[in-house]
UniProtKB/TrEMBL annotation:
Pfam families: Methyltransf_29. Keywords: Glycoprotein, Methyltransferase, Signal-anchor, Transferase, Transmembrane. The keyword Transmembrane applies. It is a single-pass membrane protein; Single-pass type II membrane protein. It comes from Capsicum annuum (Capsicum pepper). Belongs to the methyltransferase superfamily. This is Methyltransferase.
Length: 256
């Protein structure tokens, strides 16, 4: 499973999942959280900083199996729900969004207004509430949503609001572009859930199905990099790899 943790603090959520065979990207808003992200990276946890609620996430469509947010100060409903719609874009069809926040359980007017807006928005986005609960001992409320994996829900909407993206939009759609008010429809290649981790590492990604020679290119890239790492990096360089955790690949190709 591949997870995005938004508003991650010191990335304790990601740290807990390290031994669960779960890959987690810890993500924090670029305000006062530079020290938190530095802490996470120094402890060997994937983490990054970026702007939230004005620009799109710099991740491609359908990138994450699950998104987790325990930070109430991220106003997903702001600006007509644009931040939540972009979250929908990077969440895989059938994927889950876990939200810890006061509007989930508090009864005061402000929090209830936020919850009502959230309900209306997620309904037109075709998200289903799988669970909503309050842990009295810890004073924590959470809701778990599941994104639809079928286009039928969107087709049944009385109004096309928010509208659906045109499929041709998808190329280079997320590179530092402003938020907008559109939804990404599931395509035929999105219906099949990918193989479990880590088996999916050696299986051609579903997003490459439309390219005629994609599988051959992907397999060749995987073989090339496997040989490079095994024969050169691990054996031919005087590096103590036991002390290396976080590596950034500046020319990743297919990520082999």
């Amino acid at each position: 499973m591949v997870i995005l943790d938004v508003g991650c603090g010191v990335a304790s959520f990601s740290g807990y999942l390290l031994n669960k065979n779960v890959i987690t990207m810890s993500f924090a808003p670029k305000d006062e959280h530079e020290a938190h992200i530095q802490f996470a990276l120094e402890h060997g946890i994937l983490a990054t900083l970026s702007v939230i609620t004005t620009k799109k996430f710099v991740f491609l469509d359908n990138a994450y199996d699950m998104i987790h947010c325990a930070r109430y100060m991220v106003h997903w409903h702001a600006d007509g729900g644009k931040p939540l719609m972009d979250l929908n874009r990077i969440l895989r069809p059938g994927g889950y969004f876990i939200w810890f926040a006061m509007p989930v359980y508090k009864k005061d007017e402000g929090d209830q207004n936020v919850w009502k807006v959230r309900v209306n928005l997620t309904e037109v986005m075709c998200w289903k509430i799988m669970a909503r609960t309050y842990y009295k001992k810890d004073r924590v409320g959470l809701v778990i949503y599941q994104k639809s994996d079928s286009s039928s829900c969107y087709e049944k909407r009385k109004e096309n609001k928010p509208p659906m993206y045109d499929q041709k939009y998808r190329l280079n759609s997320s590179w530092y572009t402003p938020l907008d008010s559109c939804l990404l429809p599931p395509s035929l290649s999105d219906y099949e859930w990918p193989a479990p981790w880590p088996q999916r590492l050696n299986i051609k990604p579903l997003s490459l199905l439309l390219e005629a020679d994609a599988e051959e290119i992907f397999n060749e890239d995987t073989r090339h990099l496997a040989a490079l790492v095994s024969d050169v990096y691990l054996r031919g360089l005087a590096i103590n790899w036991s002390g290396v955790r976080n590596v950034i690949d500046m020319n990743a190709g297919y990520g082999g």
